[in-house]
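step=predict obj=GL24136 n=325
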Amino acid sequence: MTQIINTSCLLGLFVVFLASDILCNENGDYMKRDHSLVRPFQGVGVILPHWDFMGNTMVTSNYIRLTPDLQSKSGALWNYNPIMSRNWEIHVGFKVHGKGTELFGDGFAVWYTKERMQTGPVFGSKDYFNGLAIILDTYSNHNGPHNHQHPYLSAMVNNGSWSYDHDRDGTHTQLSGCEVRFRNVEYETLISIRYENDILSVSTDLENRNEWKSCFVVANVELPTGYYLGLSATTGDLSDNHDIHSFKFYDVDNDVSHDEIMRRTNIVPNAKSFEPPREHKDDPKPGMSNAKIFFIILFVVVVAALVAIFAISYFKDRNARKRFY
Ligand SMILES: *[C@@H]1O[C@H](CO)[C@@H](O)[C@H](O)[C@H]1NC(C)=O
Ligand SMILES: [Ca+2]
């Protein structure tokens, strides 16, 4: 089945390659332009079709800077087409970088919410939101002992009645989360958010390895259809450049009726239960790094052996000379 989808999507990709209207993810799902951001972001014609931006957001041809590395900045980017897919997957390519080595902040968020284009205290966007927030928090506001390091990635589902608690870095309202290291690296870092059959799975590729590492998987997450996708970031006393390099939305629906899509516009966002964060585990793909480690160990062993052989023969030589003279 997967094979068939893959083939048809690849075929589609091939047919419209010049127009590059359709792209596929690893599973052969179609990317939807209406909800995606494709380079160049700026050029002749419309800047960012399907998206609005606000605040300090700056659009260049290669990236969209939500905030510059300056104090008290805030910016956001919102898709203006409601999501009419029951199941979907998003890949966001980003780069967070700045002058600070010890102190930097505050971070950015990926949103799937009822509200759009509303500024507020949660990484530049509205608090008491309806929907899902995936927060990439670079600064620890918590003074006491923390149960995790920063940067930290967490998810929050809200029906409009909860406030995001900055003092606790959202830990009391989070569904799940994991520690992430994505600041000040040369390459583009990526996050994948998949929502399928009420299961929310978040993965990252922060090491330029071209493979996904699971951050968490949470079941029983109910999100309505018809909400909007957005991105926002903020700086305070501390700052960073929060750059978006790509945003790809894939429709993962398979036999979902129009009636169900419409019915789900009326449900209230809800997360029934959550799993504790899983241990970081690499995908079971061919381990390039294992091979590397093996060759490094082999190299060290060979060098050590050569040194030992050299040392032994050298001392033997000296001892031999001593005896002769
Ligand atoms: C919203 O969430 C709160 C807290 O979980 C709950 O008490 C309330 O009933 C929910 N509201 C709706 C409309 O579901
Ligand atoms: Ca924080």
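step=describe
Residues 1-5, 13-21, 275-286 have pLDDT under 50 and may be disordered.
step=end
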